[in-house]
Write the structure tokens for this entry.
Amino acid sequence: NEFERRDRVKIRKIDKKAILAGLKSFCTKNVALKAIALVFAVLLWGYVLTDQKPMRTKIIPEVATSFDGEAELIAQGFCIRGNREEILQKVAVTVRTQITNYAYVNAGSISATISLRNISEAREYEIPIQANVSSALGVVQTVSPSSVKVQIDTLVTKTIPVTTSFTGELPNGYWADTDALTSTTRLDVTGAKTDISNITRAECVVDLNDKTSTIYSTFDVTMYDKDNNVVSSDILVGTLPSSTVRLPIYPMKSVPIDVLGSLVGTDDLAKNHEIVNAVATPATVRIVGEQSVLDAIDSILLTPIAVNGLNTTSTVESDLILPDGVRLLDSEKVSVLIEIQEMQMSQLFEQLEVQIVGTEKRANVTLDVSTVDLTVEGRYSLVSVLMRKDITVQVDVTGLAPGVYKLPLNVLVRDEAATVELTTTLSVTEVTVTITQQ
């Protein structure tokens, strides 16, 4: 067995050497003859390609389709109904071509059409898909799918109303003049009778976000049926409907009403009377105009309001005086409340004696403070006529046993009613009272 194994190894080595020697001999001997044979083979192959022109079959997938004769169909008063993308699906085309043209046959060199010619009524048709190869590159053998169903309907035009709505909000400080809005109010839509008859209205939506100047543009519209369902614009033939909208937008500013500056005769009120408040309702109004004009306006005056001789609060109406170049967004008439009251004055009474009331018999009462100062404030007609004899400052010790007490001081100015109306301020509000038995 060992001898057999060695013999096999020797045979393999001899075979390997023989093969290498044969290859070396093939590559080094008769080189010229071999080169001539190779050239001859190439020439023969070229002859076969150019003269014999062998044929090959090539399948081109994803070839786009298109309609042929659609313009003539529309001219006859008909149109295609349905989803065009579904109808114009891509097809696979098998082409038989010469081998020299094989590489040039592709989707771009093939046209696949659906002929709409010779259609004379509205109904469904099964139409074959025809394919052609450009520049005589070959012959179409098959088209898959080979046909397509096409629904033909009567072409009609319908006029529908168009409304304009808005979404979003203008930036602060701007105002849109919707009263001056101009837009398309009616549209003509054209398409298949079955579909067009369902459309009842159209709506144009204008976005106001970030708008700071007049909107003047064309917007797409959305169509709806009677149940307010959206109708796709794919059913339309021709130009898609749109609405032209013009909406003026202006800078806006809120300014206060200058009531006091509008009053005439404030120095000639009833004697000893004054204006304590003058308020307009509303207190501010909105104006629009060019930004440079608005920047120069800080307030708005009213037509002059005469207050000569007034001595009571009253409410009047007045009109705003608008500066040039602005427009008022609110009412021109303003209600003005003018509060007029008698002037206030104060009078100081010094060293008023504190009177003790409610002293028991056989009791001795002493105060740590026997006199106080009193300031009286109130309307001029009342305070100006007060005299010391009209004022009483008292401390009430009624029912108190002997002892030491801190008691408040009470003030009476003329009578109870006058005391309630006036404001009194004592220099001392309470005193120390000492009660002893006699």
